[in-house]
Design goal:
Strand content: 25-35%
Number of helices: 2
Number of strands: 5
Radius of gyration: 24 Å
Helix content: 10-25%
Order of helices and strands: EEHEHEE
């Protein structure tokens, strides 16, 4: 399996054979096309292989993009706290130009 003179038929590199090849090839990183309704019309499917912590973070954090006008993190917090109107408080922080991440 591991021999300096061996050539892998999968990736073309020396030193190993196909059964132990762990080289990621570019075409293996493309999401498969599926869900065709008409020829050439479909969508890509990306499997969600996230961890339980990532799933929890997705349920707690949202990304907000201000597409018209200006807003500060403080203004967003005040607006959403009034809108949600619960004992929970929202906190926002800037992560880019007019883009914020908010936690509820």
């Amino acid at each position: 399996m591991c021999c300096p003179r061996a050539v892998c038929c999968r990736c073309g590199l020396n030193g190993h054979l196909v059964p132990i090849c762990n080289t990621v090839l570019p075409w293996e990183c493309v999401a498969p096309m599926c869900g065709f309704q008409a020829k050439g019309k479909g969508f890509f499917y990306i499997h969600d292989s996230s961890t339980p912590k990532q799933n929890t973070d997705r349920n707690i954090y949202i990304v907000i993009t201000v597409i018209e006008g200006q807003a500060s993190a403080r203004q967003l917090e005040e607006f959403f706290n009034a809108y949600i109107n619960t004992n929970w408080k929202c906190s926002a922080r800037s992560i880019g130009l007019n883009t914020f991440v908010m936690r509820h």
